[in-house]
Please model this.
Amino acid sequence: MAGQLAELGVESGGVLLVHASMRAVGPVSGGVRAMAGALRDALGGRGTLVVPAFTPENSDTSPHYLDRVRGLDDRAREAVRASMPPFDPATSAAPSVGSLAEAVRLGEGATRSDHPQTSFAALGPLARDLMAGHRPDCHLGEDSPLARLYDLRAQVLLLGTGFDTCTAFHLGEYRVPAPPHRSYRCVVATGGRRQWWEYEDVALDDSDFAALGADFAQTDDGATVHTGPVGSSTSRLFRITDAVDFATHWLAAHRADAPVRALCHAPG
Model:
């Protein structure tokens, strides 16, 4: 598996952000931990592996919550809200981002950023620096690990997933002129006490990311995006700088006259 990753173009000593579908990858001897190990082997001892560790489960403004309470009466909705645990970067699970991301988050020496809804986790020599300073009112913008990954020209691997999962495109949403904002709300712990926290941030919207990605894949006749097999999957590898720069221009052009599609499928 590490050989396939290297053949695809994963750089030894580099920084790699991974979105993965283990179902698409297929059976791996040793399971998801072996897949995480193969990624680290491909990166080598000087490389750093990064994954999303999102927690929409602790928010009542997220699509996850809206799906969960659809059809419930007010009393039942309030019971769901009351059952939501506050975010704890050390212990909060992130089931919505898949088993590989969870394996990395739980890996020995892993570091996680502090955002209560859109944290990241990382393993490797640059993990601590990449995860530091994730401002709680900035999901995926300039004060998030995505911007640090951009600064380092990290690679992005869509391991058996489509461009609709490409978190890097969200940084482009922050970089368009005057992006729309909306309110978010989630459960946090302050001074050991559980409480709701509401804040304003860019209105995240991934509903057109598949179309964005299809156009991005045609950049320079497809040379920007490397495509190849990893296990049973078709996977894609590219620079985060290429993806974000393309997304910034594409979103400015394609959403200029479109209404804000709040919530959609993005975290929050």
Residues 240-254 form the longest helix (15 residues). The first strand starts at residue 15 and ends at 20. Strands lie at 15-20, 48-52, 111-112, 120-123, 155-159, 181-190, 193-202, 226-230, 233-239.
